Amino acid sequence: VLATKQAHHPARRLAAGGATLVLLRWLPGQTPPAGVAGAAMRIFRTVVLTVAMSAAWACTPVPPLKEYAYPSWGFAVSFRGPPKVTDSPAASDGSTVHTLMVESSLAGRDDLVNVIDGSGSTKSEDQALSDAPATLASAIGGTLGPITYAATGKTIGREFLLTRQGRPPARVRIFVANKHLYELIAESTLGPDDPETANFLGSFRLLGP
User: Fold this and answer.
1) Which residues of 155-190 are buried (b: 16+ CB within 10 A; e: fewer)?
2) CB-based burial of residue 149 (10 Å sphere; 0-12 exposed, 13-18 middle, 19+ buried)?
3) Cβ–Cβ contacts within 10 Å for residue 193, how many?
4) 134: closest CA among 90, 165, 174?
5) Which of 8-12, 34-38, 91-95 has the lowest average pLDDT?
6) pLDDT at 38 over 90
7) What is the pLDDT of residue 20?
8) Is residue 69 within 8 Å of 85, Cβ to Cβ?
9) What average pLDDT is seen over the chain?
10) pLDDT recorded at residue 208
11) 163: Cα separation from own chain's centroid
């Protein structure tokens, strides 16, 4: 029962967003004004539609992992959706080198492989691998976690967490092979231990000899 006509008037409750409660609390025998009833029905239909769409999304099967190969860059990796490919040529003055980035963003997960052409570098592969974690952290303003070993086939690389303010920690793997430096970066709203992160990182493989 409504306590007072002023404090609990249906129109006031509708303005406050309580259209569903308006219908539930209407006094027996009263007929809601057409505008109030119409608005309430529109809200009701919206709620029903939202619930139905949510249920449909929940039942949608997860897309399978699909491998994408980049022979000219010497690697293959798997994503659950077609990745965006960004090929950035080297600058004519030598200020930047040739890079390739493939990235997929899906369901709160951002997975990417960034490849740097080091054919013009004087560094050894071991030196490039050793310098890469600190160089990456400095470039993106992140903080390095403990560095451990990682492997793809017979190639040994490095793995670590990279934290940035306002973003989930990213799990990173770095490999150097055939004068190319490979940076695998996986960031998930579920954190760095998200099983999908392990699936992505584990799918990376080097091609060729």
Assistant:
1) bebbbbbbeeeeebbbbbbbbbbeebbbbbbbbbee
2) exposed
3) 10
4) 174
5) 8-12
6) no
7) 35
8) no
9) 80
10) 79
11) 15
